[in-house]
Amino acid sequence: MGEITSAARLRALPSLAGPLPGFDPDAAPADPDELFGHWLAEAVEAGVVEPHAMTLSTVDPTGRPSARVLILKYLVDGCWAFATGSGSRKGKELADTPWAALTFYWPAPGRQVRVRGAVSPASADESAADFLARSPGARGAGLVGNQSEPLSGLAERDRVLDDATGRAAADPGLVAPEWTVYRVVADEVEFWQGDERRRHVRLSYTRDGDGWVRRLLWP
Questions:
Q1: Across residues 11-21, what is the average pLDDT?
Q2: pLDDT score of 170
Q3: How far apart are CA 147 and CA 24, in angstroms?
Q4: Given pLDDT bands bounded at 50, 70 and 90, which one contains residue 1?
Q5: What is the C-alpha separation between 159 and 208, in angstroms, rounded?
Q6: Which residues pair with 81 in a beta bridge?
Q7: What are the φ/ψ torsions at residue 137 (nearest 5 degrees)?
Q8: How many other CB atoms are there within 10 angstroms of residue 165's CB atom?
Q9: From CA 216, how far away is CA 193, in angstroms rounded?
Q10: Closest-CA residue to 143 (of 108, 172, 112, 109)
Q11: Does 137 have pLDDT greater than 90?
């Protein structure tokens, strides 16, 4: 196993092998939401698996970061939404420090999108509607409400999840009280286009009042 994770073995793995698409920052739209929509559509066309998956980064009260992968629920008017239980680690960290970073990475086109901003919960009605739109199995998992807590074994997991999934299937209107849709109100959005020659392009959008300021960054 050590050989597989050695510096020489990892360095030999290909990265940004291409061919990669070009990106003309001068032709980019004034609003990052529009550019993200274009890039997401192109990721779908390129066959990227789960292109709406993103890494959510938060910090605990001591400043130690945590990161995990979630699904983007929607992007509307600069609000990037995801959902989780308020009692989860990320929910507790957001309650203490309501700021987060999101990272999308699409290997096929060699693209990243980075988002930073303040986080606020959506309404209870929106959170409930999102929960009810989930499958019975996903609703069951949400009903358990003990994410990140110690688990004695997989048998306990299966027993609890089977019971919760059964309750969700029997009561289609049952909503987990802690289920919350969160919105990251972006104040920074960066688009990174990789290049085989390492002449990457980074275009940053920074919120300025009701609009955005665009600028190139050194790769």
A1: 91
A2: 86
A3: 43
A4: low
A5: 51
A6: 74, 183
A7: -65, -40
A8: 19
A9: 12
A10: 172
A11: no
